[in-house]
Design goal:
The protein is of the alpha/beta class. It contains ten helices and eight strands. An eight-stranded mixed sheet has the order 1-2-4-3-5-6-7-8, sandwiched between helices. It is globular.
């Protein structure tokens, strides 16, 4: 079980394949296994790196407040440990935002981006400005088993196989840990930084994912050298709902 201590955290990671480096970062409350369908195919052509963000999966979480800036620092630290000077970064939701912020803060490290169902702000409109703080507060009272069941049911409509993975992964996070993680994730903001991204960026949007569509459309307009493509028959678990099209679009993006 490969782990490395970075920024006072034991980070779990897996490396497979050879070639240009492609790093996958999972969504909030999930883990590195989210990317199994991509690694299975893309490791044939690329060196793939998957990892568990601090507090998720097999990675640890120090006591105290979680700072979202540490997510990017952890990723860059992992690249340094693995002697990776430059990589393609792919992420979904929280993982996409971490990848985006890495491209902003460390442009020399990022060859290209693949952003899937990615928000760039948690205060996009009046609804989010009101709802997100309420959601952040209410998370204290919602058992992880309940949250896991809701997520699993909502995000397995296009691929029933998602249900077991999501339910198992989400429910494995202790509530007190999740509250600290979500407090940090739900405050991530990059609205003023989108025009700073200089690398080629592919934005993949699930056809039925209404959670991030408006933000992703705006990212496609504001990020230079970006392109947005819809993934058919997919919700927010886009890469799991339609892995075949997602893999095809990633390969096409990386081969340019």
């Amino acid at each position: 079980m490969p782990t490395v201590k970075i920024n006072n955290v034991e980070l779990y990671y897996e490396v497979k394949g050879e070639g240009e480096v492609l790093v996958f970062t999972h969504g909030a409350s999930w883990d590195h296994r989210q990317w199994n369908p991509q690694v299975e195919e893309l490791a044939k052509q690329y060196k793939t790196i998957t990892w568990d963000v601090r507090g998720h999966g097999k990675s640890s979480l120090p006591k105290g407040k979680v700072d979202s800036e540490d997510f990017t620092k952890d990723l860059v630290g992992l690249l340094e440990y693995l002697n990776v000077k430059e990589a393609h970064l792919c992420g979904l939701s929280m993982g996409g935002h971490i990848s985006l912020q890495t491209a902003v803060r460390h442009p020399e490290r990022v060859k290209s981006l693949v952003l899937i169902g990615t928000p760039y702000t948690n205060s996009y409109n009046w609804f989010e400005k009101v709802f997100v703080p309420i959601n952040r507060w209410s998370s204290i009272f919602i058992p992880m088993s309940v949250m896991a069941s809701i997520q699993a049911r909502t995000l397995s409509k296009f691929n029933p196989n998602n249900k077991q993975y999501i339910k198992e992964t989400v429910s494995s996070i202790p509530l007190n840990r999740w509250v600290r993680i979500w407090h940090a994730v739900s405050k991530m903001e990059s609205g003023n930084d989108l025009n700073k991204i200089t690398c080629p960026s592919l934005i993949l949007q699930g056809e039925y994912d209404s959670m991030t569509e408006r933000q992703q459309r705006e990212m496609a307009e504001r990020i230079p050298r970006s392109k947005m493509i819809y993934i058919k028959d997919a919700h927010h678990a886009t890469n799991l709902d339609n892995p075949v099209q997602v893999n095809q679009e990633i390969i096409s993006h990386l081969s340019k």
